[in-house]
Amino acid sequence: MTAPVANIAAYHFVRLEDPEGLRETIRGWCASAGLKGTVLLAHEGINVFLAGPRDAVERVLQQIRSVPGLDALEAKWSWSQAVPFRRLWVRVKPEIVTLRRDGFDRDRTPAPRVAAETLRRWLDTGHDDEGRPVTLLDTRNDWEVEVGSFEGAIDPHIKRFSQFAGRLQDYAHLRDQTVVTFCTGGIRCEKAAPLMAQVGFGRVFQLDGGILRYFEACGGAHWRGDCVVFDDRQALRPDLTPVAVAGG
What we know:
Blueprint: E1 5-13, H1 19-33, E2 36-42, E3 45-52, H2 54-65, E4 74-80, E5 88-92, E6 113-114, H3 116-125, E7 134-138, H4 142-147, E8 148-150, H5 164-167, E9 178-182, H6 189-198, E10 203-207, H7 210-218, E11 223-225, E12 227-228, E13 235-236
Parallel strand pairs: 2-5, 6-10, 7-9, 9-10
Antiparallel strand pairs: 1-3, 1-4, 2-3, 8-11, 12-13
Helix pairs in contact: 1-2
């Protein structure tokens, strides 16, 4: 049986002065290691999806962490029997996750994170640590939500993340409630939760590490369905096994 392929998803927001130059460096590291996947770079940071032999993935991850400012890059791991990407892409973009909100600064109104284990405890008891009811807000696209989501979570019915800001007016009644935003790996909530705080939501949190970290820590508790991933596996079950056979 073929040894499992390592898959990582990682991101980090940090000011990168020369993403164009960094693109060539990272492309070289990945190509030399035989990895496939996608790396997005922008002045605001890095977003990584890579797959290959575990030792090669670990080596490239350490090389990326050697870049000034990227030493804190954390990866979420999963496994497949084949590489779920067909090629390697390393690209520079205006944003590593596209919000298209002029003047928005995520560092101006940071939103606290809630650990997966804490969220599960809140959902088990039906309230947060202060006794307040908890509302879950899915920040993913509508077709992702159809595949799976937390029980009772609000679906904003967006086709792309850049539409999220335009839907917040529909949830003004949640401004004083405990709201936990969530997405696949956490990156969309790095903008969604601070944006909500900026426009007046007083108790908004982001699920630390997203759905994938929740699956690692809590399995499928309070979850229904699977979680879409953007590669040939199509989606992951709560035990992090792929729905589709990668490379098939």
